[in-house]
Amino acid sequence: MNRSQRLIELYHLLLNHFGPQGWWPAKTSFEVCVGAILTQNTNWQNVEKAIANLRRQDLLDPEALWRVPTDHLAHLIRPAGYYNLKARRLKNFLEFVMEGWQGDLEAMFAEGLSLRPRLLAVSGIGPETADSILLYAGHLPIFVVDAYTKRILHRHLLVPEEAGYQEIQDFFMENLPEDVQLYQEYHALLVALGKNFCLKGRPRCPQCPAKGW
């Protein structure tokens, strides 16, 4: 079985076990972008509380959020943790969107994956955040890699422990069809596997749906 076949097999094992994940949970593309920044170094439940605060004040809009003072924004997103830092990072992203496309995300994403290096140049946006924005908000074909992905592949001897983000991303994109929906669902399923079975400290290997894969 080659690498492509193995990856497709794992995808179906996880899909059969967990079912469709329907990730990313957001009402708009802009909400996805905000969530991708807020979820850095915290869990999603905390992000939901911060986003709910923004929604209550009708601030889930690029121009509206751009006009909010940074200290007030930090107060609103406090549940997400590192709120002062994340407020600055959100402002950096908003400056990028407002100055480049007057807040028009559709126009921004129309630039395709050529947008990626420019996103990565925004202070506070690393590869995982940038690719989450591109894949889930922009519906562009790029695979998102996170700590769960690396852990799962390393434990199944598909990548070395020292493998970096780009190497792991290339592994998926070179061995899977270029399909946005597949990339979205696969990433979400790997997160589910990492959270429920392939734990960092005490993995639940005997019960794992990928046992024997």
UniProtKB/TrEMBL annotation:
<dbReference type="InterPro" id="IPR011257">
    <property type="entry name" value="DNA_glycosylase"/>
</dbReference>
<keyword id="KW-0408">Iron</keyword>
<dbReference type="GO" id="GO:0004519">
    <property type="term" value="F:endonuclease activity"/>
</dbReference>
<keyword id="KW-0004">4Fe-4S</keyword>
<dbReference type="Pfam" id="PF00730">
    <property type="entry name" value="HhH-GPD"/>
</dbReference>
<keyword id="KW-0411">Iron-sulfur</keyword>
<keyword id="KW-0378">Hydrolase</keyword>
<keyword id="KW-0479">Metal-binding</keyword>
<dbReference type="GO" id="GO:0006284">
    <property type="term" value="P:base-excision repair"/>
</dbReference>
<dbReference type="GO" id="GO:0051539">
    <property type="term" value="F:4 iron, 4 sulfur cluster binding"/>
</dbReference>
<keyword id="KW-0255">Endonuclease</keyword>
<dbReference type="InterPro" id="IPR003265">
    <property type="entry name" value="HhH-GPD_domain"/>
</dbReference>
<dbReference type="InterPro" id="IPR023170">
    <property type="entry name" value="HhH_base_excis_C"/>
</dbReference>
<protein>
    <submittedName>
        <fullName>Endonuclease III domain-containing protein</fullName>
    </submittedName>
</protein>
<dbReference type="GO" id="GO:0046872">
    <property type="term" value="F:metal ion binding"/>
</dbReference>
<keyword id="KW-0540">Nuclease</keyword>
